[in-house]
Amino acid sequence: MTTDFQRIPNAPTTTPVLEMQGITKRFHGVPALQNVNLTIYPGEVHALMGENGAGKSTLMKILAGAYIADEGEIRINGKPIKITDPGTARQAGINLIYQELNVAPNLTVTENMFMGSELQKGQFLDRPGMEREATQVLQSLGASFAPNTIVGTLSIAEQQQVEIARALKDNSRVLVMDEPTAALSDRETERLFEVIRKLRNDGIAIIYISHRMEEIYALADRISVLRDGQYIGSLTREEISPQRLVQMMVGRPMQDFYEHQRQTQVGPVVLDVRNISDGRKVKPASLQIHAGEIVGLAGLVGAGRTEVSRLIFGADRKASGEVFLDGKKLEINSPSDAITAGIGYVPEDRKDQGLFLEMSSRKNIALNRLKQDANAGIVNWGSVNKIATDAVENFQIRLANLEIRAVDLSGGNQQKLLLARWLAIKPKVLMLDEPTRGVDIGAKSEIYRIMSELAAQGIAILMVSSELPEVVGMSDRVLVMREGQLVGELDGSPGKEISQENIMHYATGAAEVLAS
């Protein structure tokens, strides 16, 4: 990713194009923002960072007129302005490009750009005039498509350009981009960066929201950080470092990020898997996990890590193998058998395989307990409410009330919701597949804390992860897979140190080459 981008060397001395001062917003009495300040200058890329739930989206929706602040003031070029709806925001030169693009796929590029602000010539639409103006804006962006192209035929990156073109047509002064690269390829991301550089050089202020550190380093002139709905501070380009950013976003130093202290003394074997295989992708694999131990299962994509955990849990049919829990052989033919035995499993795709998105947070947490909390088919909602309330407190799940749907929560809170569901059944073994995928740095830290606490309580944890720093930081032992086989174990002893290099030696086959 290129980084040859001329930056503002220090905090600018020109008049800010945007000032948000003392912004406070509450939902159902719960503060989402508390006295937040944000200052943006012309011709800068200003990164807005913070964990999910920190208040970034709420602040930007207030700026875009989707929400109205309870307290505070907004200034454009030093003058106070009342933003009461998206129309007044656009008139003030403020445009927000959401992560979910807002285009009409059956209309042309020109029609999308002028939707709601069509040019008139007498009693008729001035289509030639709109197309001329659209052509000029598209050419300024270096777009490769024509103004009469149907938007639905364009790629996601090109549809994004249509939204940017619409903002430029409206003489945008401040352009907010919320996770703009989430659905883009590397090449499309580079193209977007070129557009952003051009806009910046033309004097447009860009507020850039992203969790991807490499993008922040590639683009940002300055960074502002929110945490728990409060403004923590701002950094110039020269002041940015991973350590400072982590401390600002999480509230503690980076060296404390992985809380787990590697165990040298562990309890007895809880899970004993012998020669488990699906007869296709997974070759006969054997592993053991002790009480209070976190075992990392590492390997390259496609190595068979997820498949092993699904075989253990009964989500896929095994061709061979045995599973023992506390020395007792289990007959696991379905996930319900595993759950009854005391084995929990958090899948890597929480939305499609884990959560019931349209159900309340309360029901998502209590789902695995409904059977035992029912009498003659009648659910004991008092017991369910206590379980859910305790889980929200213990796991620090951020929600206004228990009736909030799972789909309306941030990624980190969704993941904690799943953890809470499994821990409600008091499992002896918990398998976590990519436990921090798609969550921000603050939520990662909280999930690591939860994992360490569970291990301290004696739960045996099998963690599948593609993030090597996570595997190294959180594992007592690491098992490495390659091409469906378990090919190595790292336990921290001399010659078997738990490191990224040693994991990759096994994962790539380099260890066998060196040994031969």
From TrEMBL:
GO MF, any single term: ATP binding
SMART domains, alphabetized: AAA
Domain ABC transporter stretches: 18-253, 264-508
Swiss-Prot/TrEMBL keywords: ATP-binding, Cell membrane, Membrane, Nucleotide-binding, Repeat, Sugar transport, Translocase, Transport
Stored InterPro entries: AAA+_ATPase, ABC_carbohydrate_import_ATPase, ABC_transporter-like_ATP-bd, ABC_transporter-like_CS, P-loop_NTPase
This protein's GO CC annotations: plasma membrane
Localization: Cell membrane
Keyword flag Oxidoreductase: no
Top-level taxon: Bacteria
Entry keyword annotation includes Translocase: yes
Bilayer topology: Peripheral membrane protein
Gene3D superfamilies in alphabetical order: P-loop containing nucleotide triphosphate hydrolases
CDD domains the record matches: ABC_Carb_Monos_I, ABC_Carb_Monos_II
Protein name: ABC transporter-like protein
UniProt source species: Tolypothrix tenuis PCC 7101
